[in-house]
Structure prediction request, 272 residues.
Amino acid sequence: MHVIEANGAKIPAIGLGTWELRGRPCARIVEQALKLGYRHLDTAQVYENEREVGEGMRASGIKRDEIFLTTKVWTNHFAPHDLERSAKESLVRLRQPHVDLLLLHWPNPQVPLAETLGALAQAKKMGLARYIGVSNFTVALIEEAVKACSEPLVCDQVEYHPYLDQSKVKAACAEAGMAVVAYSPVAKGKIKNDATLARIGRFYRKTPAQVCLRWLVQQNVAAIPRTSKIERLSENIDIFDFELTDEEMAQIFALHNPKGRLTDFGFAPKWD
Prediction:
């Protein structure tokens, strides 16, 4: 299996994102994904589906130690005691003794970052998570986090697809030995009508989504496409039998657009 290595962690290159998946359909898609060969699952407290993700894991029959499971702490639990308590509540919902990766979901300027990271490092020392990291952190925040955290951070999970230039964040992560994990890696479906991706895909008999995911993996970036369709699950993981040329990679990089960001909230940091 293709993995992205970062500060000791081995993160499977393609995972299943579960944002907006709820209830029985969520448990079923998680179970199917694992049966199809996925070994990386991504959830979060704010998705309100940790229970169903855990159910899908158990129903799949795949051994726990073969699965790389990520969850994320929501921003209103960043005070130190609160972070530990909420991480334990996530484990209760997942019915797991630990997660593989525990992330801070978004930066929260209301709580000093050093305090939150101290609590995150403590959660790791207590065995609640094997690895820790951040999500939606800018270059400045990555640098601050790395300095302030007593344990290594293994990734920054950010929006990344051909329409959004993340070269600065990628460079900052590389400098710190961290991986980039891409959410919305197929730009919430926007890439399916992209002429460049379609043209490259025709040559390899691959879909625009497969070309897009391959482009990410060839940058040593992990991707967590979300889907609720079983047939799309198989498509998203079937990207390891072809390789894009340097020229094709460059053509896809050229799709960057200053207005390419799709996920932006009022509480978001000032992006790079």
